Amino acid sequence: MSAVPRFSAQTDSFTEYAEARNFIGGAWRDATGGLPSQAVDNPRWGRPIARVQMSSAADVASAVAAGKAAQPAWGAMPIRERAQVLFRAREIMLRDLRELAWLVSHENGKIYAEAEAEVLKGIECLEYGCSLPNLAAGELLEVSRGVSCELTYEPLGVVAGIVPFNFPCMVPLWMLPQALVGGNAFVLKPSERVPLSSLKLAAVFEEAGLPAGILNLVQGGREAVEAICDHPDIAAVGFVGSTKVAKLVYGRACGTGKRALCLGGAKNHLVVVPDAEPELTVDNVVASFTGCAGQRCMAASVLLAVGDVDHILAGVAEKAARIQLGTELGPVTTEAAVRRMTAYVDEAERQGAKVLVDGRGKKGTEEGFWFGPTVLDGVRPEMPAGREEIFGPILSIIRVSNIEEALHIENANPYGNASAVYTTSGDVANRIMGAAEAGMCGVNVGVPVPREPFGFGGWNDSCFGQGNLTGWDGFRFWTRQRKITRKWALQKDATWMS
After folding, report:
1. Which pick of 62, 181, 287, 458 has the fewest CB atoms within 10 Å?
2. Which residues contact 339 (CB under 8 A, 6 or more apart)?
């Protein structure tokens, strides 16, 4: 087996890396089927740092076969022994934190601080997985004289995860800890745009002592996704990506009898009221819509300005305009994304919106895929910029006269990922938090991502399937409950269970 090479970069300077291959049954393998490989671009420099092989249905079948062969022994291990692999993986990730963060930065475009934060959040997910032997102890109760009922959590077998481009290290770790500690074998399909972090994750788990065949890595695109949905020996599928694809994956996977949990896109609203604390609100709003170049499903997209908050809006525009591309804001992932964002701003301006801060044509380097912070005022809810997911550092301001109007706009959008309010009033906060159609809500927090052990998951068109993908819901998603009722002796006082 050829080891995954270390990623040598310690700065943003262009650095090439290894070809992204498959990891199946504990061995690195080339994809079969003859599909052409694709370039993996460094968004900062706009040119390839690696290539990714594109897998066929036969490659997915090989990964499933490897998982199916290895899973019974893994599932038979005590849960505490399975969790020990996660403890060791955590230590390896901490040891290699800088290398992992630089790799995320180079393949995804995040600035280093954001990439490091992503890896640390992934480590936090591992830590939750380490706690599962204590949380998943099951339940035992004497339900009648001499009769007991017990609950245990059993593995599903072979399961799979399909993950997006925007968090190549963290999102796989939303799934892997619970699925692996639950006793399953796992097939991971990374985004073909950012396949390199998955190579290091596979190497981390291998070094941590995960048995061969329990984690299998299949690179590729649509063919691999469809094969995962269709394969009869995959019992469950987790997905994170756009709403369009989430719907397709959910329908196709469920159509073959799998359980599926598919997280989609978002159009998140921040409600700002006149009593909001100005400094906190300005800093938080700007961080929300520009962080990770706006390429996260929890980013602010629309600011609902209630009444006279012009002093806060002016602060948002001023702070956003000072952000330095390259050092404080990274690139977006593709040239197509730049064109799409430009079209949204052009159309909003044509329809009467005012461009307070214009990110069109801004550059962090002469090369690369760049789009600067952009603030649009006077957007109307029916405009594309006011209702469609843009997935970039663009904030649309919609002016409203009261909280009821703000809630109407928030709740009329089809998504339900995140919502936030900026206020110093507990009553206002409670009213909005109790009425917003969103699964993850924040009070003076513009990116209300729940920390472990609280689960990540939205509502409506942001989530297809039941429950959350992380936390305790995640463990229950990747396992099935067995209920055991026992009676050992004849009792003198009979009940209906006797």
Report:
1. 287
2. none
131: CATH: 3.40.605.10
pLDDT for res 214? 98
Judgement on whether residues 189 and 120 belong to the same structural domain of the protein: yes
Q: In this structure, which amino acid lies at residue 397?
A: I
DSSP readout, 229-263?
Answer: HH-TTEEEEEEES-HHHHHHHHHHHHHTT-EEEEE
Q: Using one digit for the tens of pLDDT, what is the confidence trace for 352-388? A: 999 999 999 999 998 999 999 999 999 999 999 999 9
Reading the block at residue 71, the tokens are 């899973």
Helix (H) or strand (E) holding 40: strand 38-42
Count the neighbouring beta carbons within 10 Å of the beta carbon of residue 437: 18
CA distance 271 to 419: 8
277 and 318 in a common domain: yes
- Give dist(CA 284, CA 161) in Å, integer: 32
* pLDDT classification of 271: cutoffs 50, 70, 90: very high
Q: Is 297 a catalytic residue?
A: yes
Same domain? 173 vs 310 = no
Q: State whether 179 and 253 are in the same domain.
A: yes
Do 257 and 273 lie in one domain? The reply is: no
Taking only the tens place, the pLDDT of each residue in 422-456 is: 999 999 999 999 999 999 999 999 999 999 999 99
My answer on whether 331 and 245 are in the same domain is no
| Cα distances (Å, whole numbers) of residue 277 to 168, 190, 399, 421 | 35, 41, 19, 11
| Coil vs helix vs strand at 32 | coil
Spatial distance between the Cα atoms of 268 and 179, rounded to a whole number of angstroms: 29
- CB atoms under 10 Å from CB of 11, counted, come to 9
Which DSSP helix (H) or strand (E) runs through 340? Answer: helix 335-350
Q: Given 229, 297, 441, 463, which residue is catalytic?
A: 297
Distance between CA atoms of residues 497 and 120, nearest Å: 51
CA distances from 276 to 70, 150, 254, 423 (A): 56, 51, 45, 4
Rounded-to-integer distance, Cα 121 and Cα 112, Å: 14
Q: Quick one: pLDDT band at residue 272, thresholds 50, 70, 90?
A: very high
> How confident is residue 496, by pLDDT bands cut at 50, 70 and 90?
low
- 3-state class of 376 per DSSP? strand
Domain of residue 353, residue span: 268-443
